[in-house]
Amino acid sequence: MKHYFLTNYHNVHDDKLFELYKKNYKNDKDFTPEYRYNTILNYSDIWFHLINETDEIIACCSVSVNKDCYQIDDVFVEEQFRGNNYAILLLMNVLFAFNNSKQKILLFTSEDNIPAIKTYEKLFGSPKKNGNNLVFSFN
């Protein structure tokens, strides 16, 4: 299976990504494709999308650019693609994108999200506790 990434930087409309949202979420009962797409445009984050050769969105996440770190948020793998290490593939490419940065990369998750914790530990090692959350650090 071939994979590729599509990124959306800081409120920049992308026709290809918009078409993918319309294709992938046309049967969503809760949110229209336009609503989902406009939601990512309203964030000041960088969005990364993992897409397969049939233009299906497999996974996505956002990266907030802060003064002293990058923070990975909203890591999501579409249900039908879970269990195939796509979150790891997505996150490896995010880490690669910021590889030359001297800033720390952080990822937070709640301590009861066991599947996510197991996935993140493969890349980041053991987390540190931060209130009711766990924080994973890279760099």
UniProtKB/TrEMBL annotation:
It holds the Pfam family Acetyltransf_1. Residues 7-139 form the N-acetyltransferase domain. PROSITE patterns: GNAT (PS51186). Gene3D superfamilies: 3.40.630.30. InterPro entries: Acyl_CoA_acyltransferase, GNAT_dom. GO terms for molecular function: acyltransferase activity, transferring groups other than amino-acyl groups. This is N-acetyltransferase domain-containing protein. It comes from viral metagenome.
